[in-house]
C-alpha cells in the first residue's frame, strides 16, 4: 500500500494531461462547460445545436460536474490546479483496487498469492498512470473489486443474501459508469443460477437493478423525459457503426494482455488463471463473457478490457503460485524462474518510472494554458498540415471560444479561413494554431492572405513520450503547436 500510494501521488503531481480522447473531451470538457454555463458537446436538449440523445452516459460526467462545482465554490479556478486535485482523487479511489485486491486474493488463495497480486496491482507499469486518468474503464474497477469483496469475505456466510445485495449495488454503479461492466453481474447471475442459489441471485439482481435504474434511467428521465434513452441510442449506433472505428482481429486482446502484462510473467498469469478457472468460476465466467464480447466486436481499443485486468491478475497469481509450488520443473530451475522475474521487474520499473512522470498531450494542454492569459478570446481556429485539425482542450483555456475549424464543414485550409472571415470581424480568429511536423511556412503564408495582421507568438512542443508514441504509431497525433496571434485584436504580446 505504501508503494501504491507513493507512485499514485507521483502520478497525480507529474502525469498531467490526458491519455485518450474520452478521458478528457467526454468527461472533463463537458462537465466544466456545464459549470461555466455552456454545453461544449451540445449534449443537453435545451442547447442550441442539439439534435437529440448523443449516446453518451451522463452519470460519470455528472460526477465531474459536481467536482468542478465544488472547486468553483472553493474559488479554485486554475485548470491545472483543479486537475491536480482530480488526479489525486482518482489515485486515491484506485487504492481500493490494491487493498481489496489483496484481501480477496488472500481470502481465496492465501498470503503468498495475495502478496504477489498486491504488488502487481500497485506497481504494474501502467497502473499508477492509468489510475489518475478519467477513463471510465478505470474508474469502474474499484466498484467491481468492492462487489467481489462483499461476495467472498468471510462474513458472507452469516448474511449471504444481504452481502450479495450490496455487491449488486456496486456492480450496478460500475455499469452506470461503463456499460460493458454489465457482464460481471450477468456472469455472476449465471453462476448463481446453475448452483441453485436463488436467494443470492435475487439479491444480486435487485441490487444491480436498483443502482442501474436509479442513476442510468433516472438521469435520462430527468434530462429527456425518457429513461434509458441514451443507452438505446448507444446500442443503436454501436450496431450501425460497428465497423466505423478501429477494427482489429478477434485475437487482438490476447496480444494486448500478453504484452501489457509483460512476458514471461503474463504467460505465468495466463496459465494460473486457466488452471483455477473451474474452482473460481464466479470470477472466470464474468471475465470470459466480458473478454469474448470484446473480442467479437470489431471495434477494439486497448483500454476496453481494463475492467477485467485486476481480477485476472488476482486469480492468475493464485493459480501460478500453486502451480509453482507443485512443479518439479520449476523446483529444479529456480535460477531460470528468478531470471524471469528479474527481467520483468527491471523492464517494468523502467517503464513505470517513465510513465509515472509523463505529461501526456503536453502540446495541446500547454497551448491552451499559455493562451489563458489573454481574456476575451471569442474566436480561434486550428489548421493542420493534413487538413485534419486538432480539437484543442478549451478547458485549459478557461474560455469557450468558437473554433472556426469545428464549424466549417470542409476542413481544408481555404475553407476554414473563408468561414473565419466571411462575416468580417465577427468570426475572425484572435489566434491561429498551426499543427504539423513539417515546415508550416506555406500554411502561414496562405493564412496571411486572409488575416494580414497575423504574427508569430510561440511554439509548444509535445513531450518525449508523446513524440515517441507518434513515431511508433502515427495515428497518435501528438504534434508541435505553433501559435500565431492576430495583432488586429491583440496588438501586444502578453
Overview of this structure, please?
The chain is mainly α. The protein folds into 2 domains: 2-356, no CATH class; 362-486. The protein has 24 helices and 5 strands. A 5-stranded mixed β-sheet has the order 2-1-3-5-4. It starts with a helix and ends in an 8-residue tail after the last strand. The model has no long low-confidence stretch (mean pLDDT 92).
Oligomer category = single chain
Q: How are the strands of the biggest sheet laid out side by side?
A: 2-1-3-5-4
What is the distance, rounded to the nearest whole angstrom, between the alpha carbons of the first and last residues? 46 Å
Sketch the topology as an H/E string, one letter per element: HHHHHHHHHHHHHHHHHHHEHEHHEHEHE
Helix content: 55-70%
Radius of gyration computed on alpha carbons? 25 Å
Low-confidence stretches: none
- By DSSP (H or I, 4+ residues per run), the number of helices equals 24
Strand content is 5-15%
Determine the structural class based on helices, strands and strand pairing: mainly alpha
Largest sheet: 5 strands, mixed
DSSP summary, beta strand count? 5
Shape: globular
How many independent structural domains? 2
- Provide the residue-averaged pLDDT: 92
Key terms for this structure?
mainly alpha; globular; about 60% helix; 2 domains; five-stranded mixed beta sheet; 5 strands; about 500 residues; single chain
Helices and strands in order, then pairings?
Blueprint: H1 2-14, H2 22-35, H3 59-73, H4 79-109, H5 111-123, H6 127-131, H7 136-139, H8 141-152, H9 160-177, H10 183-194, H11 198-224, H12 229-240, H13 252-260, H14 265-275, H15 281-296, H16 309-326, H17 328-332, H18 334-356, H19 362-371, E1 379-384, H20 394-397, E2 402-403, H21 404-407, H22 413-421, E3 431-436, H23 441-448, E4 454-460, H24 464-472, E5 480-486
Parallel strand pairs: 1-2, 1-3
Antiparallel strand pairs: 3-5, 4-5
Amino acid at each position: 500500500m505504501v508503494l501504491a500510494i507513493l507512485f499514485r501521488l507521483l502520478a497525480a503531481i507529474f502525469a498531467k494531461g490526458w491519455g485518450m480522447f474520452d478521458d478528457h473531451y467526454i468527461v472533463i470538457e463537458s462537465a466544466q462547460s456545464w459549470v461555466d454555463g455552456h454545453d461544449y458537446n451540445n449534449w443537453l436538449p435545451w442547447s442550441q445545436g442539439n439534435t437529440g440523445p448523443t449516446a453518451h452516459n451522463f452519470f460519470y460526467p455528472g460526477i465531474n460536474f459536481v467536482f468542478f462545482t465544488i472547486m468553483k465554490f472553493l474559488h479554485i479556478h486554475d485548470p491545472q490546479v483543479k486537475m491536480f486535485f482530480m488526479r489525486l482523487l482518482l489515485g486515491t479511489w484506485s487504492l481500493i483496487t490494491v487493498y481489496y485486491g489483496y484481501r480477496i486474493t488472500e481470502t481465496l488463495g492465501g498470503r503468498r498469492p495475495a502478496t504477489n497480486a498486491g504488488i502487481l496491482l500497485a506497481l504494474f507499469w501502467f497502473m499508477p498512470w492509468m489510475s489518475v486518468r478519467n477513463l471510465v474503464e478505470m474508474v469502474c474497477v474499484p466498484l467491481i473489486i468492492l462487489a467481489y469483496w462483499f461476495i467472498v469475505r468471510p462474513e458472507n456466510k452469516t448474511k449471504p443474501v444481504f452481502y450479495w445485495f450490496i455487491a449488486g449495488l456496486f456492480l450496478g454503479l460500475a455499469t452506470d459508469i461503463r456499460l460493458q461492466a454489465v457482464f460481471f453481474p450477468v456472469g455472476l447471475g449465471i453462476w448463481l443460477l446453475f448452483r441453485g442459489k436463488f436467494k443470492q441471485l435475487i439479491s444480486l439482481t435487485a441490487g444491480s437493478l436498483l443502482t442501474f435504474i436509479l442513476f442510468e434511467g433516472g438521469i435520462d428521465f430527468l434530462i429527456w423525459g425518457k429513461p434509458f434513452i441514451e443507452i438505446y441510442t448507444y446500442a443503436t449506433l454501436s450496431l450501425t457503426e460497428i465497423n466505423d472505428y478501429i477494427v482489429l482481429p478477434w485475437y487482438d486482446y490476447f496480444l494486448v494482455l500478453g504484452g501489457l502484462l509483460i512476458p514471461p510473467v503474463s504467460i505465468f498469469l495466463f496459465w494460473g488463471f486457466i488452471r483455477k478457472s473451474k474452482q473460481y468460476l464466479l470470477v472466470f465466467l464474468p471475465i470470459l463473457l466480458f473478454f469474448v464480447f470484446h473480442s467479437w466486436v470489431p471495434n477494439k481499443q486497448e483500454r476496453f478490457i481494463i475492467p477485467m485486468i485486476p481480477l485476472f491478475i488476482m486469480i492468475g497469481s493464485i493459480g501460478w503460485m500453486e502451480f509453482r509450488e507443485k512443479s518439479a520443473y520449476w523446483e529444479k530451475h529456480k535460477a531460470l524462474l528468478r531470471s524471469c522475474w528479474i527481467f520483468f521487474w527491471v523492464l517494468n520499473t523502467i517503464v513505470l518510472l517513465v510513465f509515472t512522470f509523463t505529461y501526456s498531450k503536453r502540446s495541446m494542454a500547454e497551448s491552451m494554458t499559455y493562451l489563458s492569459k489573454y481574456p476575451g478570446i471569442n474566436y480561434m481556429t486550428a489548421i493542420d498540415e493534413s487538413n485534419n485539425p486538432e480539437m484543442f482542450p478549451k478547458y485549459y483555456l478557461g474560455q469557450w471560444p468558437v473554433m472556426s475549424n469545428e464549424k466549417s464543414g470542409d476542413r481544408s485550409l481555404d475553407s476554414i479561413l473563408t468561414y473565419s472571415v466571411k462575416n468580417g470581424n465577427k468570426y475572425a480568429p484572435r489566434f491561429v494554431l498551426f499543427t504539423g511536423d513539417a515546415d508550416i511556412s506555406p500554411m502561414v503564408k496562405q493564412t496571411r492572405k486572409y488575416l494580414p495582421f497575423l504574427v508569430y507568438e510561440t511554439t509548444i512542443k509535445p513531450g518525449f513520450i508523446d513524440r515517441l508514441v507518434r513515431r511508433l504509431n502515427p495515428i497518435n497525433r501528438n504534434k508541435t503547436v505553433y501559435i500565431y496571434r492576430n495583432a488586429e485584436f491583440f496588438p501586444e504580446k502578453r
